[in-house]
Design goal:
By secondary structure, the protein is mostly helical. The chain has one domain. It is built from 7 helices and 2 strands; from the N terminus they run ααααααββα. A hairpin with a 6-residue loop joins strand 1 and strand 2. The longest helix is centred in the N-terminal third of the chain and has 71 residues. About 20% of the residues are buried.
Length: about 260
């Protein structure tokens, strides 16, 4: 004899309650995961913001260092300009008497060496190599990249026209100056890397009679003189750019 069991039926509303329960659990899980993503993104945002400000501070310190370096180079160029300012009178004097070379000593001292400006690029290298520009505000990144572009333009000027003018003068100097006079002028100093220039020269300075070589040398000195004037002018422009950036970052981020 078969026994028939009645079908079990859920109470009214139970399925709806189960559905709401599962929906609530899913919603809570979604909220938890979303909150985790949000907090992680927030932490990354704050970390990026902190690193960006560290880059700004580092670049700010580089600018202050470079401003001091440029100030010294502007003074150095000024000494060279003053030493070369008597070119015309000196040439006229020597043209009349090849032994009247005392006026050349200032010219020689002012043209024997050249100091290019090298930017402190520790921060710019990090920004470029590590993709650090993305961490900066657009205004900050644009200002820094504009300054970097101005320096590269100036660097091209230094490595081409300036260096070529210096090489030409130095090369002809070795042809026009007698060995004995050169030995007296250029003396090594144990306490310095550079040679010491001594203006107390008793030996004949020039190879007498070679007026063509003398003319060539003075033409190269004239170009060198003009190049140094332009070099100093561009140094001043780069320094003004640095000062503007220093004031910009100082005011924006309340730096010292």
């Amino acid at each position: 004899m078969e026994i028939h069991h009645p079908h079990h039926q859920d109470p009214p509303g139970k399925k709806e309650k189960l559905w709401k329960h599962y929906a609530l659990e899913f919603f809570m899980l979604f909220i938890a995961v979303s909150a985790g993503f949000f907090m992680e993104n927030l932490r990354e945002h704050f970390a990026d913001e902190r690193r960006g400000k560290e880059y700004i501070l580092s670049f700010y310190e580089d600018l202050k260092t470079d401003t001091a370096k440029i100030s010294a180079l502007i003074d150095y160029d000024q000494q060279k300009i003053e030493g070369l300012s008597n070119l015309s009178n000196c040439y006229e004097s020597i043209s009349k008497n090849m032994r009247a070379t005392s006026c050349m000593l200032d010219l020689l001292k002012s043209s024997i060496s050249y100091r290019p400006f090298q930017m402190t690029d520790r921060t710019l290298s990090q920004l470029g190599n590590a993709g650090g520009f993305r961490l900066l505000e657009k205004e900050d990144a644009d200002s820094i990249m504009k300054y970097e572009s101005a320096f590269k333009f100036f660097q091209d000027f230094q490595s081409t026209l300036c260096q070529q003018a210096q090489d030409n003068v130095r090369s002809t100097f070795n042809l026009v100056i007698t060995f004995k006079a050169n030995m007296q002028m250029m003396k090594p100093r144990p306490d310095q890397e550079l040679l010491f220039f001594d203006k107390q020269v008793t030996e004949p300075l020039l190879f007498l009679g070679d007026t063509a070589l003398l003319n060539k040398y003075f033409n190269e000195l004239l170009l060198y003189y003009k190049v140094i004037i332009v070099h100093q002018k561009r140094l001043r422009g780069l320094k003004e750019n640095q000062i503007r950036l220093i004031e910009f970052f100082k005011n924006k981020y309340h730096l010292q």
